[in-house]
Amino acid sequence: MKITNVDIYMLDAGAQRASRRPICCRVWTDEGIYGDGEAGIAFDYAAPAGVGMLQDISRLVIGMDPMRVDEVWQRMFKISFWGQGGGPVVFAAISAIDIALMDIKGKALHVPVYELIGGKVNDSIRCYASQLQFGWNEDVGPRGTAEEYAAICRYAMDDGYDAVKLDFTMYDRDKKDIPNAQCEGFLSNDFYKMVEERIAAIREACGDVDIIMENHGRTDVTSAIKLGELCDKYNFYAYEEPTTPLRPEFQKLVRERVKTPLAAGERLYSRWQFLNYFEDNSIQLVQPDACNCGGISECKKICTMAEAFDVKAQIHCAGGPISTAAALQLTAATTNFAIYEHHFRSTQSSIARLGKYDYQPQNGNFSVSDRPGLGQELSEAAIAEALVHVTVSEP
Fold it and tell me: Which residues cross the membrane (predicted)?
């Protein structure tokens, strides 16, 4: 079997187009089997770069055997030159191709991807409702007051979830964006009080629900330690991206002062970048994204390495339907699995319609498809309405 060509798409997420432009690929073979992959840079500003990078990376794999996944991965990683720099755009492209190859291999062997990476160990996958400051399901819109934070968490719990994640630093009480500078250094008393008001309201309304505080790297060491006091005081499940991912030692400084387990990994690429965090015990919940850390094959290696350091795993997932399918296949075969992220954006029909199947949890738990390969592919509408479509057929 040989790879013959690669179709690359920037998908139209409709109502979410301004903040989400999923970048996907379909890798074709000379036996008619194809696989779909996704580059994990759908949101923010990198999506157009993902299209260009996928075009260049695809030229490296034309003519190769898609069943030899690690051989193809090494070629993309080393011959691309920029691969060993570990940047998000090049690794998102590598990831998309890798995911598509795992999809092809599963289809060729008539097994789900999880059977290719050790077999299923998790039948029912517990989820948390992620990024509730944006809303949940049909209840869309930013949150401001403490009462609104409590109400949206209660709404998610009524939907069957017993764990939630929120960024308490993103919006002020009037639902206006909080500048990054206000989240750094010496926090004002009013800022600190606002965050605690929200947390206390959630605890009162939702009892022992597991809460993850998400900072998106907006805080620095000084402010992260201060907010970490609240995580400890209110018994949080985890504390995510408290500092910039560019400096592993910063997160270690937070870990030395905060008891709540620290989570990070969605902006780390390849096993080499994760190793520093494992060695200094600055991550307790690792969150690699299969669509930007190097694909399914690399994400599996990262999770296995994490287990050797007593680190639990949660696959980061904030993209389109292919991203969800890849994350679920990995989670099914992850022995150190802790919890699964179901993102607010994934509850929206504008994202769900991009996949042939709409995967949603039931009562806060996912089951994993036993269809061959990923168990998901791009919908006909996603392909027909793509904002960009490029085909690569020559090295």
Answer: none
